[in-house]
Amino acid sequence: MAPLGILRRDLLRYLRNPLRTALLFAVPLVMAAVFALAFGGGGGEQISIKVLLFDEDGTLLSRLADGVGTSPEASRRLDLVPVGEEGYAMMEKGEASALVHIPKGFTDDYLEGRPTTLEVVKNPSERFLPKVVEEGVGIGGIVLSVASRVFRSELQQIAQLKRGTSFPADAAVAELSAQFNGTLRGLERYLFPPVIDLESVELQEDATETDSGVLGILTYVLPGFSIMGILFLAQSATRDILIDRESGMLRHLLTAPVSPIDFLLGKCLSVFVVTIVGFAIFIGIGLAAGIRWGPAPAVILLMLASSLAAAGLLLLIMSLAGSERQGDTIATIVIMVFSMLGGAFIPVSQIPGFLRPLCAVTPVYWSTEAFAKLMLNGGSLADILPNVAVLAAVGAALLFGGAAILGRRIRRGAV
Amino acid sequence: MIRVERLCKSFDSLRAVDDVSFEVAEGEIFGLLGPNGAGKTTTINMICGVLKPDAGKVLIGGKDIWLQPKTVKRSFGVVPQEIAVYEDLTARDNLRFWGSLYGLSGAELRSRIDDALTRVGLADRADAKVKEFSGGMKRRLNLCMGLLHRPQVLLLDEPTVGIDPQARLNILEVVREVAASGTTILYTTHYMDEAQDLCDRIAIMDHGKILTVGTLDELTKLAGEAEVLKLSGAFADAAARSRLASIDGVRVLKADDRVAVLSIEAEGPGLLAVLPTLLAGDLEVEDVSIQRPNLQSVFISLTGKELRD
């Protein structure tokens, strides 16, 4: 009876403190939401790069650059804004990702085969987008340089025609066209058919549902953050043991017909139930957000095993702590380190190699790995049984160890 | 009802309780009086089964607490020195939880909670969270928890420490009522007046030992019904101290640089004869206070120091 009484009291305390309880759930959920929004790209929305085009040349080639941004595909991704000298001031204010400067006489120099330069001014406050512009302009420069060498004589003829004061004669234009045609025909066997063909495949929406945008990132991060959340819940539940000890409540409890074993059973039960309820709430929130956790029996089994591991880990930490403050500090550090190593924040594959062997020490790893099998690889109950077995065995061992240490301390009168 | 036999407990080199024995009869209010650190709480903790004694035995209702802990614990209630209540729960929640530990439930538990809260004057705050309570209200709730299962024996460990006079009076009144209904009470305190007013018998305790046990009358007689003089002045040199000791009819209980405590022996020349000698000139006495025989003077006569020291 006494263990159930202790369980009922602990659950009642969560209900009587809705703010404290809500905060315990809010922290991991907010962190998961922040991760999803930061890395999920706002539900798959395309990023548009704003580029300022300072065209001092204003002739044939520079107008080609201007036309780049007018194709339907490019206009979705590229916001090309024509500017003058004021473009540099705009860059100072960080109003665009990059500025491309086409200098005066660029086309003439190109046609005559003289070296010329395109300038790209990058926004230092952005990390990736200016680099994209720089690479794009660089590729354009290479293409133009190759064309300059291949069509050298034709380009020089265009330059001569351009230098003339009158409109070029039909015969001269026809001759130039024939030359271009001849050169291209000579290149045909090198250029066609291309060795590598590019084919774009648009995936169906339902197939990408869990892999794109906020939902996709949530699918990756919510299991890890949920496990971190139940570790914090277990910390809160086990912290009460130290608070009871320091406030004299434990001593008072032991004056009632409650044995140390009753007390420990009640606390273990309470921590276990709190973590299970907590995990169920996280799973419910995930389901409401559209996340597919996997087959229900597998998820329930994994939830129970993860909760047992969380309860055991925190009970052991608190049983070794000398005071509430000490226990709290150690528990917070362990939870954060285990969450990081276990893949709650970043996939274990991204963790430096020398740290990876440590990952398997954490229950978070076994739990997140199992959820990844279920959620990302379409795994079944059989696939996660090894993880469940590890979590349950470790959890039971830690719970037993923690209870044994606490029991010994109580019997020795260190209460 | 309570029988404590040769109880001993040490913490490392500190002998906290040293060969303590006493008996409390059914329906009696028995006081353990002593300064902080005298060993009262350690004794109570051993009696109620929280702390295992190094030696000795505790029998409550004839049963050994360490052999039949659950049975014996059902027969007594404890009001600890610490306020051991959950502040984030209501008074009723706390009592409901506490009652459930004694197997109380349903209508009976509800009725007992209402009775207990009414008794200590907290009925109107039953559903308020304890964190909103004053120190005195928390102490009264603490008392409720000890009374809820209507125990045969009530153990109270300094239940009035740090509370306002009104709450203190309420607690003492409830203790008297409970005793009047036949409950045996063991009450520890370092407040002399509480022990004098409340207890049928008193054990004076210091440095882990029981110095004496008796009714108030027996104890004051034990001190020889002598007045105790407390002198303030200069007693640093050996000459002054030996001068004090040489005065006829005086026993020096304590003497340090600034304070000397003397007992006027009943069979000696008496206070009126001693006072002129003390003030005659060769002693530097600045102030004299006279203590009539009471627990304070008994304690001073037994230990050479005041209870609050």
Features:
heterodimer; A: 415 residues; mainly alpha; 19 helices; 4 strands; elongated; B: 309 residues; alpha/beta; six-stranded mixed beta sheet; four-stranded antiparallel beta sheet; 35% helix; 28% strand
Number of strands of chain A: 4
Strand percent estimate of chain A? 5-15%
Low-pLDDT windows of residues of chain B: none
Contiguous helical run count of chain B: 11
Give a topology summary:
The complex is a heterodimer of chains A (415) and B (309).
Chain A: H1 2-16, H2 18-39, H3 41-44, E1 49-55, H4 60-68, H5 72-77, E2 78-83, H6 86-92, E3 98-102, H7 106-112, E4 119-122, H8 129-150, H9 152-163, H10 170-191, H11 205-208, H12 213-247, H13 249-253, H14 260-288, H15 296-320, H16 324-341, H17 356-359, H18 363-375, H19 381-411
Parallel strand pairs in A: 1-2, 1-3
Antiparallel strand pairs in A: 3-4
Helix pairs in contact in A: 1-14, 2-12, 7-9, 9-10, 12-14, 12-15, 12-16, 12-18, 14-15, 14-19, 15-16, 15-18, 15-19, 18-19
Chain B: E1 2-11, E2 14-24, E3 29-33, H1 40-47, E4 55-60, E5 63-64, H2 69-75, E6 76-79, H3 91-101, H4 106-119, H5 135-147, E7 153-157, H6 165-180, E8 184-189, H7 192-198, E9 201-206, E10 209-214, H8 216-222, E11 228-234, H9 238-246, E12 250-255, E13 259-264, H10 271-278, E14 284-291, H11 295-303
Parallel strand pairs in B: 3-8, 3-9, 6-7, 7-8
Antiparallel strand pairs in B: 1-2, 1-4, 4-5, 9-10, 11-13, 11-14, 12-13
